[in-house]
């Protein structure tokens, strides 16, 4: 991309300003890029068809599990290649319009992940409140400006200062203090590397998408054996397969290098080649496999 990569790089994130995705992206790229705020996670993936070079999307939360919309896009689309990850500690707040008390709240707006992460607080203090899903936590905060005063939003503390007329009513309302979300960094293509420009260390991980045919759909033993031969299978997730027989799934397998990490260009090349070899082995065993990312 040339020497001016920092000033011309467009990074797509879930918007608006104030989302945890934006915060995660800032922890890597700072103010050296242009952020392009997208309304939904699907819009972030779709933005790769334009002038977007990099995207950041939430993958999973330590309390509430995978982000379904992200996995559903990984299930079917071929936009972008995962080249890194970032983990962010998440502290949710209950935000209201200035002067609103807890007993006034009748509706709570937020992303479904945040609503799930705060379910104990909601059940205890707002058991009768209507829960309304929004595309992001920051969009929930911004919506308060147009909603009746009996509404609240679950979002980051920073949203209260970003949008005039809001204040924090309660802090740290998630189920546990230790609440973390893992985000994926995607580039437009596998050949595009941004790690050296932004000091992103290799993790020696890879994410594979595996389609099982009808005969093998309920026999995962062979897949596990293949994945666990020369590298460590650290996580496997599944989503329903599109355009296939009912109750047949798409599998997302995360693998990691077993031996110690060596921070060298040759080591990264060898890891990439090992992942490609694994994908070939899975394919030769009768499964449809593709590497969604190597980082």
Q: Can you lay out the helices and strands and say which pair or pack?
A:
Layout: H1 5-8, E1 10-14, H2 20-29, E2 34-38, H3 41-46, E3 54-61, E4 65-66, H4 68-76, E5 81-89, E6 93-97, E7 107-110, H5 112-117, H6 119-125, E8 130-133, H7 137-143, E9 151-155, H8 158-162, E10 166-171, E11 180-187, H9 195-198, E12 205-211, H10 221-227, E13 232-240, E14 249-256, H11 265-284, E15 288-294
Parallel strand pairs: 1-2, 1-3, 7-8, 7-9
Antiparallel strand pairs: 3-4, 3-11, 5-11, 6-9, 6-10, 12-14, 12-15, 13-14
Key phrases:
single chain, 295 residues, alpha/beta, D-Maltodextrin-Binding Protein, domain 2, Alpha-Beta Plaits, 3 domains, 11 helices, lyase, EC 4.2.1.51
Beta strand count: 15
Beta fraction: 25-35%
Beginning-to-end CA distance, first to last residue? 19 Å
Major sheet summary line: 6 strands, mixed
Shape: globular
Number of domains: 3
Q: What is the H-and-E element order? A: HEHEHEEHEEEHHEHEHEEHEHEEHE
Radius of gyration, Cα only, in angstroms? 21 Å
Which CATH architecture of the largest domain is right?
3-Layer(aba) Sandwich
Structural class from helices and strands?
A: alpha/beta
- Uncertain segments of ≥5 residues (pLDDT<50)? 1-5
CATH class of the largest domain: Alpha Beta
Helices, by number, come to: 11
CATH superfamily caption of the largest domain = Periplasmic binding protein-like II
Specify the oligomeric state. Answer: single chain
Overall residue-averaged pLDDT value: 91
Fraction of residues in helices?
A: 25-40%
Q: Briefly note the CATH topology name of the largest domain.
A: D-Maltodextrin-Binding Protein, domain 2
């Amino acid at each position: 991309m040339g020497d001016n990569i920092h000033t011309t790089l467009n990074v797509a994130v879930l918007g608006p300003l104030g989302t945890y995705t934006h915060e995660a992206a800032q922890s890597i790229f700072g103010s050296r890029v242009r952020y392009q705020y997208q309304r939904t996670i699907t819009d972030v993936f779709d933005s790769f068809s334009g002038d977007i070079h990099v995207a950041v999307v939430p993958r999973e939360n330590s309390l509430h599990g995978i982000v379904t919309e992200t996995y559903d896009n990984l299930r079917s689309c071929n936009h972008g290649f995962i080249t890194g990850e970032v983990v962010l500690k998440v502290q949710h707040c209950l935000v209201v319009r200035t002067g609103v008390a807890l007993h006034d709240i009748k509706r709570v707006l937020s992303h479904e992940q945040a609503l799930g992460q705060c379910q104990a607080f909601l059940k205890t203090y707002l058991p009768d409140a209507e829960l309304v899903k929004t595309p992001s936590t920051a969009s929930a905060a911004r919506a308060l400006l147009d909603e009746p005063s009996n509404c609240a939003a679950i979002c980051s503390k920073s949203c209260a200062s970003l949008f005039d007329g809001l204040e924090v009513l309660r802090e740290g309302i998630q189920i546990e203090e230790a609440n973390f979300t893992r985000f994926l960094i995607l580039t437009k293509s596998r050949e595009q590397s941004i790690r050296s420009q932004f000091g992103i260390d290799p993790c020696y991980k890879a994410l594979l998408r595996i389609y099982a045919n009808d005969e093998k759909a309920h026999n995962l033993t062979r897949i596990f054996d293949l994945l666990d031969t020369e590298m460590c299978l650290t996580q496997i997730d599944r989503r329903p397969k599109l355009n296939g027989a009912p109750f047949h799934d798409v599998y997302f397998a995360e693998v990691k290098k077993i031996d110690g990490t060596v921070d060298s260009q040759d080591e990264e090349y060898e890891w990439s080649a090992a992942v490609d070899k694994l994908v070939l082995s899975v394919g030769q065993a009768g499964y449809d496999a593709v590497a969604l990312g190597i980082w």
